[in-house]
Structures are given as C-alpha cells and as structure tokens.
Amino acid sequence: MKTTIKTITPESLAEAKNLIFGGEVVAMPTETVYGLGGNAFDDCAVQRIFAVKGRPADNPLIAHVHTGYDLSKIIDYDPPYAKKLREAFLPGPLTLVYPSTNKVSGYVSCGLDTLAVRVPSHTGAQAFLRAVDIPIVAPSANLSKHVSPTSAEHVYEDFNGKIPLILDGGVCEGGIESTVCDVTGEIPVVLRPGLITAEMIAAVVGDCGEYAPNLTVGEKVKSPGVLYKHYSPRCKTLLFENVTDGLTAIRKTNGERVAVLCEDEIAEVFANAGVTVLNLGKTEREMAARLYELLREAEKLCDVLITIEPKKKDGVMVGVLNRLRKACTSVDIKH
Ligand code: AMP
Ligand code: MG
After folding, report:
1. Distance CA 23, CA 43 (A)
2. How many CA atoms lie within 13 Å of 58's alpha carbon, on the beta-carbon side?
3. Which residue ranges have their beta carbon within 6 Å of ligand 1?
4. Main-chain phi, psi angles of 307, to 5 degrees
5. Residue 204: enclosing H or E segment and its boundaries?
6. Would you say the pTM of this structure is higher than 0.90?
7. Gap between the Cα atoms of 232 and 54, Å rounded
8. pLDDT by residue (tens digit) across 227-279?
C-alpha cells in the first residue's frame, strides 16, 4: 500500500472521509500527538487499528469528536462536574472517561463499561472530525511500544506502506498524550497525567484524585494502558537522578555512541564532557513538547541514551516524568 502525506485541504479531507467510511485507518494531527484514526462504529476498522499498531487487545481506545458533536449519542451518563470540566478545558488535551455501554464498537473499550472521549483543539483535527461527523477512535500513531509521533514524518517512519493517508497538520504543540480523567465516580480521577494537571482539574471542581495502580496485590487495573512499556526509543536508554551519576555512566560506556538527554540548566556540563546533548529546554511546556522528538532523534544518532531526570517534579512534569520513566524501563511492566 502506498502511504501519502497530505496537508489539510477540502480535497484531502474528502479523501480521508472516503477512506474512513470504507473501513480504512487515517493518521490525523492533534495538539498532543498524531493519532491513528478509524470509525468508532465499525468493528473491522477498530480491529484494524489494533492490528496495524500491534496494540495489546486489552488497551482501550479514545474516541475523538468535534466540538459540536452530541455526546449523548455515545455516553450513558454525564455527571454535572464533567460539564464544568468540558467548559473549562475543551476543546483541549483532556480525555474524559464516561459510563457507556454498546454505543460504539465493542472493540473500542475492550469490554469495559466506559468510553474515553476527547475533543481535540487542533484546527486540522476539528476539520477532519467535522467532515466525518462520527466519533473517530485514535490511539497514538506509533507502532506499539515505540515513541509517540509529534509530526507527520514520525507517523511515516512507523507506518509507511501500512496506511493509505497521513493528514499533515504540522508539529504538535503539546507533545505528550492527553490527560485521561475518569468521571464515572463521585470525583474526577486522573488515570494518565498530561498537560491538564490534577491541580487544574481540582481548581475547577473542588477535588481530583490521582490513580496509581497497586500492581503488587493484583488489583484489576482501571486504565490498562498504564501497565505497558511505552514510548521507547530503539537504543539502550538509562535514567539517572543527577549529573554525577550521569557522568559516571558515560565513563562506563565502551566505544558506543552516547547521547545525553537533559534539561537546559545542566546541558553545558555534558557538552563539556564531549557527548552529544539533546536539550529538553527550560520550561515544563518546552520539555513536554520536545520529549518525543528528542527520543526519536536519539535512536538515530546513538547506541546509549543517558537521561537525567529534570529537577521539577510537579505540575505538567508529572506527565513528562511518567513518559520519561516508561521510555527508560527495560522490561515490559505487564509481565
Ligand atoms: P493512546 O490512545 O495510545 O494515547 O492510549 C489511550 C489511553 O487511554 C490508554 O492509557 C488507555 O488505557 C486509556 N483509556 C482508553 N479508554 C479507556 C477507558 N474506557 N477507561 C480507562 N482508560 C482508558
Ligand atoms: Mg500510545
């Protein structure tokens, strides 16, 4: 299959719409990362997404809709506090998990009685979602366990020859996947951290929990995606808490090509040590926006990537560190 990259025009949107209603998958830009989209009502299209990505069958998908879409078509119950969250943050990088059964293909939620719904703010995503006027399920458009894509070229690297069309909406501003927030209970609970933080959610509705699965007691996990190794570059990746440990690790390398991924504040130390530096930047938003781009660059230019955890740990950095730690985990957490 030939894969083409097209900017978003009335012609490419018409082509994308035809492909979607023909059961194909189409990659689309969003403000977080690129998504691999398919018709949420079409069992075959949803199964195709899992197959093309190599995604584990128990990791549910997020349905994406345009701002004018009537949510009651796809959810069973809408708690009053969810409306406040939508008014405060949508369209934007916040996914809400609602009670929902049998409204879309059963393959979307992998047997859970909930549906994750997101309204992206990216103008290209909105144009595409309006054109099709159905919920589009779209996981990140990377091969399972590889680094998420923040440009059309990243999607092409993973899916050339496997999907017909990539809608090119430029480089994603956000850089890490949406915050996933469960709204099925008394209070919202963040299942996956992102650019909309638990503090921002609590500021709007008074309270917000943060979900941390207790893997030791075999608890049934609420959001299966949190268990899988993710976001990994195809090079050896090591994570250290401080500069001293990073420098020691560099000394221990043996003729391999080494690069260091770190925040701007300490970049000079490593540049002086003679290794390639991948600079995450200064602010938490910069670090979120650059993380995946730099992890993809790392796998092209080094054998060993030494990463130093940024100092700031709260706010948006909860999401950035979550991704960084998963990228540096050498074993599949699930097994
Ligand atoms: P991705 O599409 O690759 O960004 O991953 C989607 C994330 O949303 C994964 O972590 C999923 O586990 C999570 N997710 C999707 N649907 C649900 C749901 N119904 N309940 C809980 N988590 C969900
Ligand atoms: Mg993903």
Report:
1. 9
2. 9
3. 59-62, 97, 109, 112, 114-116, 139-140, 177, 180, 191-192, 222-226
4. -110, 140
5. helix 198-205
6. yes
7. 15
8. 455 678 989 899 999 999 999 999 999 889 999 999 999 999 999 999 999 99
Q: Whose CA is nearest to atom 22 of ligand 1?
A: 223
Query: What distance in Å separates the CA atoms of residue 66 and residue 315, rounded to the nearest whole number?
Result: 28
Nearest ligand to residue 180 Cα: 1
| pLDDT 10s digits, 146-181 | 999 999 999 999 999 999 999 999 999 999 999 999
Residue 245 Cα to ligand 2 middle (Å)? 30
Place of tokens 């879409």: 69
Angle at 187 between CA 184 and CA 188, to 5 degrees: 70
Determine how many CB atoms are found less than 10 A away from the CB of residue 115. 26
Edge-first strand listing for the sheet containing 304-308: 236-240, 304-308, 258-262, 276-279
